[in-house]
């Protein structure tokens, strides 16, 4: 039995996660079992038909391993395994009370969007040092950033975020060379291979953010920049905004520019959208995980969750004992 010690496991079905001779293992049809060390695991991502036995489920719960199920191509998270911890009730109470205020939602949105624009500018300067023309991007981002602190509503902040993203994507298109091409961001469905990779990376990023929030006792569905919408992890969506460029966009540019992924590794679905072929999926997963580690994205994500904790604490009513995290 092959044995691996990794913090994140990507399991592509059909297959089953089960116990074999007292050890956690993934058995894929036609392949030998892969033994996983639960003491090293923090995240398990399952794609397609991946079942979990009761004994394996119990082990994942005991080791607090975040486990999520995705569609076969990784485009959408179907659901996740999450434990409960009564000690974090106070954290969620605090979050709900703070984000009940339109002013606090606006202030959180300002913080997130300012952070996102900063990462765009940082990335642009890096490309500039490599002799890539940034055109008016840095000037445009600077002008938008100056308006963020004065935005009077969350809607106004969202408008500035949209303007910054539009400027960034215009610049991003110029970073790709034939046979790659990117003209505009399209999500449902992705209109080209670059958009397919961006969507895949954002899905992985969203899963990491949701796992981090749940581990900290937060309610992923309730955010500030992204309004509440049934079925959407709005706080997770907030949290990934400052990580989109360093954790996903730069990975896509690098993978395409270095020919680590090729356009002919994508197929067109009936919807007209592009998706990565199954045989190339493992390569994309490996490249993204490698890029994630090299970028120090885990640390950045933890820093933003810590910033969230500080934000909520500073805006809580110190006289309200019901907000104690010891509830």
Automatic annotation (TrEMBL):
Q: What is its EC number?
A: 3.1.-.-
Q: Which UniProt keywords apply?
A: Antiviral defense, DNA-binding, Endonuclease, Hydrolase, Magnesium, Manganese, Metal-binding, Nuclease
Similarity comment text for this entry: Belongs to the CRISPR-associated endonuclease Cas1 family.
**So which domain of life are we looking at?**
Bacteria
Q: Which gene encodes it?
A: cas1
The record's section on InterPro entries has: Cas1 (IPR050646), CRISPR-assoc_Cas1 (IPR002729), CRISPR-assoc_Cas1_C (IPR042206)
Please identify the protein, giving its name as recorded: CRISPR-associated endonuclease Cas1
Residues that, per the record, bind Mn(2+) = 161, 226, 241
GO MF annotations in UniProt: DNA binding; endonuclease activity; hydrolase activity; metal ion binding
PANTHER family registered for this protein in UniProt = CRISPR-ASSOCIATED ENDONUCLEASE CAS1 1
Complex formation: Homodimer, forms a heterotetramer with a Cas2 homodimer.
Classification from the root reads: Bacteria, Pseudomonadati, Planctomycetota, Planctomycetia, Gemmatales
A Gene Ontology BP annotation from the UniProt entry: maintenance of CRISPR repeat elements
């Amino acid at each position: 039995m092959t044995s691996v010690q990794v913090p994140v496991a990507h399991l592509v079905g059909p297959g089953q996660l089960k116990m074999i001779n007292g050890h956690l293992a993934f058995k894929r049809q036609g392949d030998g079992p892969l033994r996983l060390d639960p003491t090293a695991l923090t995240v398990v991502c399952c794609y397609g038909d991946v079942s979990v036995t009761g004994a394996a489920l119990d082990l994942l719960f005991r080791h607090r391993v975040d486990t999520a199920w995705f569609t076969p191509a990784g485009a959408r998270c179907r659901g996740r395994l999450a434990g409960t911890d009564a000690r974090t009730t106070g954290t969620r109470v605090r979050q709900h009370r703070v984000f009940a205020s339109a002013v606090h939602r606006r202030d959180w949105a300002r913080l997130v969007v300012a952070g996102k624009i900063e990462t765009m500018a940082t990335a642009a300067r890096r490309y500039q040092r490599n002799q890539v023309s940034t055109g008016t991007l840095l000037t445009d981002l600077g002008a938008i950033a100056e308006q963020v602190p004065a935005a009077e509503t969350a809607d106004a902040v969202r408008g500035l975020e949209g303007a910054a993203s539009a400027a960034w994507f215009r610049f991003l298109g110029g970073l790709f060379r034939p046979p790659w091409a990117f003209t505009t961001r399209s999500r449902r469905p992705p209109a080209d291979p670059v958009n397919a990779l961006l969507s895949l990376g954002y899905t992985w990023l969203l899963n990491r953010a949701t796992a981090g929030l749940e581990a900290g006792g937060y309610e992923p569905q309730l955010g500030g920049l992204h309004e509440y919408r049934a079925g959407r992890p709005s706080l997770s969506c907030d949290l990934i905004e400052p990580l989109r460029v360093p954790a996903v966009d730069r990975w896509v540019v690098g993978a395409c520019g270095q020919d680590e992924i090729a356009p002919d590794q994508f197929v067109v679905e009936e919807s007209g959208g592009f998706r990565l072929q199954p045989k190339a999926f493992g390569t994309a997963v490996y490249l993204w995980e490698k890029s994630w580690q090299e970028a120090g994205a885990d640390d950045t994500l933890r820093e933003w969750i810590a910033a969230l904790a500080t934000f909520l604490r500073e805006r809580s009513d110190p006289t309200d004992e019901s907000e104690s995290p010891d509830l």
